[in-house]
Amino acid sequence: MKSHRKELWFQLPTRRAFVNITSQVEVTLRESGIREGFILVNAMHITASVFINDDESGLHADYESWLERLAPHEPVGQYRHNRTGEDNADAHLKRQVMGREVVVAVTEGKLDFGPWEQIFYGEFDGGRRKRVLIKIIGE
Amino acid sequence: MKSHRKELWFQLPTRRAFVNITSQVEVTLRESGIREGFILVNAMHITASVFINDDESGLHADYESWLERLAPHEPVGQYRHNRTGEDNADAHLKRQVMGREVVVAVTEGKLDFGPWEQIFYGEFDGGRRKRVLIKIIGE
Amino acid sequence: MKSHRKELWFQLPTRRAFVNITSQVEVTLRESGIREGFILVNAMHITASVFINDDESGLHADYESWLERLAPHEPVGQYRHNRTGEDNADAHLKRQVMGREVVVAVTEGKLDFGPWEQIFYGEFDGGRRKRVLIKIIGE
Question: Which residues in chain B are contacts of A59 at CB distance < 8 A?
Answer without folding.
Answer: 79-81, 89, 92
